[in-house]
Design brief:
Blueprint lengths: L2 H10 L5 E5 L6 H16 L3 E6 L17 E2 L4 H10 L2 E5 L11 H4 L6 E5 L10 E4 L6 H11 L8 H14 L10 H12 L4 H9 L4 H13 L1 E3 L4 E6 L1 H6 L22 E8 L4 E8 L5 H8 L3 E2 L3 E6 L3 H12 L5
Parallel strand pairs: 1-2, 1-4, 2-3, 4-5, 5-6, 8-9
Antiparallel strand pairs: 7-8, 9-10, 10-12, 11-12
Helix pairs in contact: 2-6, 5-6, 6-7, 6-8
């Protein structure tokens, strides 16, 4: 982050302020971990922070300290809009374009308060007053740790803040197996462990706390997997009927797409999930090696993300969406 920006933010934080903290729509572990870590940090600095999420977060993140205080814009637009409008400073974490907040975009666009963006996605929009953007990082939480160090406040990172930061790092790094995991990442985590986090317990809460229905849905997903070895590709399909049959809850499909990449010879995996109420097909892409799923999602499926992990959506029906996908991968080199 530029020195001038750090100095300006230090000045903004020198006196107590009402501060809004916003993650992207459908927040994941990195989005919730970073926003709640910043929330607790600002509390210790005598500010009045509030986390306002565009919509609800998955149940497997409900244990995060402070999660019970998160306001959900979708559930109370009037109250959340008022909180945003009274904010003297706004932090936007883990997204690089305001449209990633859904309907909240129209409120955020009208705010006069200075905005600070901290994010690791490619091609950020220039909407923020101060921007800390770096695609070399595997998670916004690791960047937030750095941000706190830029403010010379690492001594304030306690077990609560550290647990939130660790959550974002471990989820967005694929439990430290993705290429963006560096020696510095591990050194940050070592410090978080020294701060008192129970990394084993956090891992269990995030990954080993399944419901019976989620495991049944996983079974259905794996049964639906189609493998296209000639294109080094696999994909999974879940219909609205599948979701309803196994009483789908937000977060139940998290990580399922990664199973496709565990097949020998497969370098590109996708999952297509029908959401009839929203009238869209939600898509997640994962890759190994140099195939850029971020660009693929941007070019063809109204999405984006990282080189090896991205999301998108389709407004066509499932049959036409899959036909388009197979046609596309038959013409590219993976």
């Amino acid at each position: 982050m530029k020195k001038e920006a750090v100095i300006a933010i230090k000045e903004l934080l020198a006196t107590p302020k009402k501060i809004a903290i916003v993650p992207h729509r459908s927040p994941d572990g990195d989005a919730m971990g970073s926003t709640l870590a910043l929330y607790h940090f600002l509390l210790k600095e005598n500010h009045t922070p509030v986390v306002i999420s565009p919509n609800d977060f998955p149940n497997f993140l409900a244990w995060l300290p402070g999660a019970e205080n998160v306001l959900i814009y979708e559930n109370d637009k009037e109250h959340c809009s008022a909180k945003l409008q009274e904010a003297e400073l706004v932090f936007l974490l883990d997204f690089n374009a305001l449209h990633r907040t859904g309907e909240m975009e129209q409120v955020l666009n009208k705010l006069n308060a200075p905005m600070v963006m901290i994010d690791h996605h490619q091609k950020p929009d220039g909407f923020a007053t101060y921007t800390y953007s770096d695609t070399a990082f595997g998670s916004t939480c690791e960047m937030l740790y750095n941000f706190i160090s830029f403010l010379d406040k690492t001594a304030l990172i306690d077990k609560t803040i550290a647990s939130c930061i660790y959550t974002g790092i471990v989820t967005d790094s694929g439990s430290f197996r993705f290429p963006s995991t560096t020696g510095t990442t591990h050194r940050v985590v070592a410090d978080l462990i020294d701060k008192g986090i129970n990394n084993s317990e956090i891992h269990n809460l995030l990954f080993d706390n399944n419901s019976y229905n989620r495991l049944q849905l996983l079974g259905r997903a794996l049964q639906s997997m189609k493998v296209l070895p000639e294109y080094k590709t696999s994909y999974i399909v879940l219909s609205q009927k599948d979701l309803d049959e196994f009483h789908y809850e937000k977060g139940d499909t998290e990580g399922i797409v990664n199973y496709g990449l565990t097949i020998k010879g497969i370098h590109f995996a996708a999952i297509f999930i029908e959401h009839r109420e929203e009238n869209i097909i939600k898509i997640s892409f994962r890759s190994q090696g140099t195939f850029d799923v971020n660009q693929f999602a941007r070019d063809h499926f109204n999405g984006g993300g990282h080189i090896n992990a991205a999301g998108g959506k389709s407004y066509d029906n499932m049959k036409d969406t899959l036909k388009k996908f197979e046609n596309l991968i038959s013409k590219i080199s993976i």
